Input
Amino acid sequence: RQVFQGDLTRNILFRLRMMMLNPLYLLLCSAWFVAISESSVITINCTGQRGRVKTVETWTCDRNGGSECGSSIEDCSGFGEEGSLSGGTAYYDPNGEYRSTGGWDCRSKCRGRPRTSGSQQKTVFFY
Output
């Protein structure tokens, strides 16, 4: 049987609608969105800051041995007036298992130091 392009398009759209109505599919999509939203990149204005890359790292240690490790990087190393701000957060459970995307590995900051937090910063100039 010959399938016409219109029939194929209708079939694909029908299947997509059925998947969107399935609660399990919605749950999986929601979980995927939360996972990818742990890190991001945006454009920033670098006027007067060209050649500079600033990194800020933060950590929060919970009472059970888990850790939350955030990082942000302002990158104005290019030659234009625009740069990027990227960042993310990593979560480690008390067993040291990585539970997210983004961030950095701050587990060493939390070993033996429950209920503490802190930050560190580094700025590098390229020209």
Q: What stands out?
A: The first strand starts at residue 39 and ends at 45. The two ends are 67 Å apart (CA to CA). Residues 3 and 9 are 10 Å apart (CA to CA). DSSP finds three helices and five strands in the chain.
